[in-house]
Every structure is written in C-alpha cells, then in structure tokens.
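hey so i finally got around to running the thing on that chain from the lab meeting. sorry it took forever, my laptop kept dying and i had to restart like 3 times. anyway pasting the input first so we r on the same page abt which one it is
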Amino acid sequence: MSCSLLQIQGLSTILARVIFKEYLVKIQSSFASEFKGIYISFRKRKLFQFLRHNQIDLQAWDQMNANSEYGSVYSWSDHLNSFCQWDAVVFGDYEGGIPLPYSRRSLFQFCFQPVFTQVCKWVGEMPDDEGLELISDLIKARYSDIRINSNLDLPGFDRRKRTNLILPLNSSPEKLLAGFSKDLRKNIRKLKDRPLQLRNSMTASHAIKLYREAYGNLNPQLSTIDYQHLNDLIIPLIKQDRAEVIEVVDPDKNEIIAAILLLKSHERMHYILGAPTPLGRKLNALSYALWMLLFKHANSSWTFDFEGSSI
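ok and heres what got predicted. didnt touch it at all, straight out
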C-alpha cells in the first residue's frame, strides 16, 4: 500500500491496511496532517510516534529515562514541565525517545532549547540509520524552525558540534588538584589560613539572588519567571537527592559569600549556576566550594559537567 501521509516500509499490504484503519478511527475528526504522527521501522517492526504532550505517558517516560544508560538530568518530565511546553518522538513501547520543546507563534510552531536545559537528549535504545531518517521526518513535519542541542546525528539538518567541558572524578584528589591552574591551586591552599564553611541549603533562592547580582546583566534572556521556575523545581529535587545547593559562609562575618547550584542524575553533576559576593570573589570562595565538592567525590564513578564552553 502506498500512502504519502503514512510512511510504511516492507510490511504486507494487509498489515498496512490494519494500521492505517486503526489510526484513522482514532482521529476521525482530525486534519489529514495528523497521519504524519506515526512511522514504522522496517527492520525492527516497531513504531516511531510523534506524541503531543497530553498523549505522553509521563510515568513510562520517566522510567525510560531512569533505565537508560543515555539518561539525562534534563530528560525528567518534571524538569521539562518546569521550563517549556514539550512534545516527543517515542520509539516502540517507550524503549527510546526524545523531548521536543516548542513555542507557538500564530500558525507556526518552533522547536527550541529551553533555559537551564543543556540538551534535548535521545534516551533509551539508540536508533539505527533508518530510525534516524524516520525521527528526522517526524520532527520536520511538525515544526517550522528547529534549534536544539541533541545527541542524535539527524539527517537533513544543519548540524555542528558544540564543546562541553566535563571532568571524570575517577582520580585521586591529588590528581584532580594537579589539573587546576597554578594560581588556583595557590589560592585554594591560602584558604587554609582562613577556613571557610560550607553548608547545604534546602532552597536555591540565595544562590539565584547572588547569581543575578553578579552575572544577571550577562544573561538578559533569563527572566524573573525563569529564575522562579528554577527555584520551584529545585526545592523538591533536593529532597530526592537530584539537586544540591551549597553555600559558602565566612565565619568571621557570619555571612554567605558564595553559592552554587547543581543538578544530579545518572552519576553526573551539572553546574547550573554559581556566584560570589565581592568578598567571596576576593577570597576565591566559589573555586573553594567547587574544589571541596570534587574532593568529596574523588575516586568515584561520578562526572562533573561544567556546562560549557560553547553550550
């Protein structure tokens, strides 16, 4: 059976008609473009489906992310729900999938990279070349403009590599410290003469406040609502050990002089934001907090993700 609205490869005519008929019944009153939401892999005999957000089984989605070696802190449904509207392409029975954040302007929909979200990652079973073609077709059929960071090498898109800085923490503290610059090592050692205190916070509000004061003018795209959504997300994540906020306190003045905010998942820590006060900058408090965090996780299977430099 040949149909321009439903791509079917290598299946019998009978099976094709059954699938086509069942899908037709489900969308009796929909426009013909809705047929573009389902493709079939010839090799694997499984569906690649485009799902609107209200069609996604969020529990199955999160289970897919939890079980995947490619799982991501940014692929949890609560993270995505905090920063964007999103649809998805899903393979089989949630054996793989990619979130697709979007915005709508008039009659057009745009797929974009949300704030505080490094990557829209395919998690679960990785697609083969045929699957990549089908995923590409599904995405292009839905959005007028597509600008996301992804781990998929999708055909038909203008693609370029972006560098991200990571540090595996499977080395000793001495080896990790040796990788720091000479000046930074010297500044960290100086703090032995004026020890700073670290404490965990159950909210990100102070870290966000310091960041906005220090660097807010460098990130005009981030709105007050964006920061509020981040703080609202972090509070429950801290209780689930999926986020951590570390504040640096100067015991002499009993004041917070720096703070960092991390997201954690799949043995990977992501440096979301951090900032010092003027005194904290003078004392290298932010570097000290990062060093103590890396020292704590040295000789482990964790990886520290600096969220840079071109992402």
